[in-house]
Specification:
The protein has 374 residues and is α+β, with helices and mostly antiparallel strands. 34% of the residues lie in helices and 22% in strands. The chain contains 12 helices and 17 strands. The chain has a 7-stranded mixed sheet, sandwiched between helices. The relative contact order is 0.19.
């Protein structure tokens, strides 16, 4: 497969037997722990490793849905750099259609309730995750959806990109903001997320303060909890129920980041590899829950990706929020801190750690990810 500049995969890649999907994949490791960076996705991939034969393989393959991001965006994208690192856009969809209707009125289209750029560093032993607040006011580029042109906007909320243009427009918007090319895309919706957590047996968290939010159907006293799917969804959606919070998307992002680390630890300890029935149930649920780019749209590709990320644990992940400040024109929105955001994007492009100076003073990282939950 050629990159955006027409460069074919290298002879070294051929020798290692690596398929050049997107860019920058390293060969698989022997350990079977997943880098599950958010609401689901790569969690499932590692669990597919023991289930890829015969009927099971085709059954799970048939569950997967794919979007051809490369074809939709063409060649007008950031440079495709083959340096061993990888960037994945992981999104949670807040569509209220169908079974998701209990979370509010369907207003005609899904929006990106959660958006995270997962940067896997060369060597695949650590990662950085950059959350993009859904309420960020950005310049949205022109997009195409279902063959129809979708005009851009000078000042639009970030999550409208998914609503008006689908996954390809979200990827294009992220790339236009960051200048970082996304190698892969993964999306999960509300219903799929709940089912995956239930299939895993819940996720253990400790709340430092009570959480009481009627909007997200979550009511938890302070203390240790094993959250089921419904409660987990409430936790990653809550914006109004945390004492001392400002009701914005920023507090919710901190809850999401902490929950992801707890989810990773749960996957690591769940012991499904010795239980074929549970393994299949989780794999079946996970593959039904996600939509990926077409380069990941198979059991074999997901499994290969998960194996290659197997050495990354929750302690090897740095989680930050894109540097932002409250919008002077609307305190319910945020705007990027341009110079600080540029430090973040430069670090990812250069495969370097995100400097602490990039997030200092940002409204998005005040208090750290363990402010409310650990």
């Amino acid at each position: 497969m050629a990159d955006s500049n027409g460069t074919a995969k290298t002879a070294e890649s051929r020798a290692r037997g690596i398929r050049a999907t997107g860019r920058r994949r390293k060969g698989p490791t022997r350990r079977r722990r997943a880098l599950t960076i958010t609401l689901c996705t790569l969690t499932s991939a590692v669990l597919l490793g023991g289930a890829g034969l015969g009927y099971v393989y085709f059954k799970l393959n048939g569950n997967l849905k794919g979007v051809d991001i490369n074809a939709a965006l063409g060649h007008d994208r950031p440079k495709n750099v083959d340096d061993g690192s990888m960037d994945i856009l992981v999104m949670g969809s807040d569509s209220r259609a169908g079974k998701n209707g209990e979370y509010g009125k369907d207003e005609g289209g899904a929006r990106s309730d959660t958006a995270m750029i997962v940067h896997v560093y060369k060597g695949h032993k650590k990662a950085s995750v950059v959350s993009i607040p859904r309420d960020t006011m950005i310049k949205r580029p022109d997009c195409v959806k279902d063959g129809k042109d979708v005009p851009g906007a000078q000042r639009a909320m970030f999550n409208t990109a998914f609503e008006v243009g689908g996954p390809a427009c979200s990827v294009k918007t992220v790339e236009s903001i960051s200048g970082v090319r996304m190698d892969h895309f993964v999306e999960v919706d509300f219903t799929g997320f709940k089912k995956l957590i239930d299939a895993l047996g819940g996720v253990e968290v400790t709340t430092k303060k009570p959480i009481d939010d009627n909007n997200s159907h979550l009511h938890l006293p302070a203390g240790k909890h094993t959250l089921n799917g419904e409660q987990s969804l409430g936790l990653v959606r809550t914006r109004h129920g945390v004492p001392g919070g400002d009701g914005s998307d920023l507090g919710r992002i901190q809850l999401q980041q902490t929950f992801i680390k707890a989810l990773m630890n749960q996957v690591k300890n769940v012991g499904v590899l010795t239980n074929p029935t549970k393994l299949y149930d989780i794999a079946d649920t996970a593959t039904r829950a996600i939509t990926t780019d077409t380069d990941l749209n198979s059991v074999s590709e997901l499994t290969g990706l998960a194996k290659s990320l197997g050495n990354i644990g929750s302690d090897n992940i740095d989680m930050v929020t894109m540097p932002v400040t409250y919008d002077p024109a609307n305190p319910d929105r945020v705007v990027p801190l341009v110079k600080k955001s540029q430090q973040v994007w430069d670090a990812l492009r250069q495969d370097q750690d995100i400097p602490k100076s990039a997030t200092k003073g940002s409204a998005g990282d005040q208090g750290g990810t363990d402010k409310y939950v650990k």
